[in-house]
Amino acid sequence: MKQIFLFLIYISVVFSQDIFPNYPVRLIDNKQTTLHQITNEVTFVSFWATWCIPCIKEIDKINLFIKEYDDVSVILINEDRVGEIPKVKRLIKTRKYPLDEQYNIVLDFDQKLSRLFSAQPIPLTLILKNNKIIFRKRGFNVGDEIQMKKIIEGALNE
C-alpha cells in the first residue's frame, strides 16, 4: 500500500512539473471554467495573495508590459481565504488589474492548486507555452520582470 501511495505522489509531482493541468476552477466573478479555457499559446501564471508584498510587486511590474502581447494570457491564482473575497476584489479594483478574457483571477480557497504545484511559499510564477511549463520561479525581486519578459518574447517568437 505504501509503495502505491509513493508511486502516485511521484507521478503527480512529475506531471505537475511539466504540464499545466486542465483543472476546473472558479474565477473572481464566480464563473466556473477550466484552466485550459483561460490559457493562450503563452500564459503567465502567478500564485499570489493580497497580504504578499512580493506578489503585488510582481503583478504590478508584469502589468506594465503584459498588454503589449495579444497572444499572452494572465492567470493569477489567489491564495486568500474564502471570507476575504471583498478584500481581493478591492485590491484588484484599486490596482486596476485589467480583468478580461485574457486576464483572469482564479480563486484557490481550498488550496488544491497550491498543493498540486507545491506553490508555498508564494509568489510562485510559471510561464507556459501551449500548456507546458517553460519557466518556474519562486519569489520575486524587482528586476525579475526583465527576465520574464524575455522568456515571454522568446516563447512567442518560437
Order of neighbouring strands in the sheet with most strands: 2-1-5-4-3-6-7
Number of helices: 5
Distance between the termini: 45 Å
User: Major sheet: size, sense and barrel closure?
Assistant: 7 strands, mixed
| SSE topology string | HEEEHEHEHEEH
CATH superfamily: Glutaredoxin
> What is the CA-atom radius of gyration, in angstroms?
15 Å
Number of strands: 7
Total of domains: 1
Write the CATH architecture name.
Answer: 3-Layer(aba) Sandwich
Characteristics of this structure?
single chain, 158 residues, alpha/beta, Glutaredoxin, seven-stranded mixed sheet, 5 helices
Give me a quick take on this structure.
The chain has five helices and seven strands, in the order αβββαβαβαββα. With 158 residues, the chain is an alpha/beta fold.
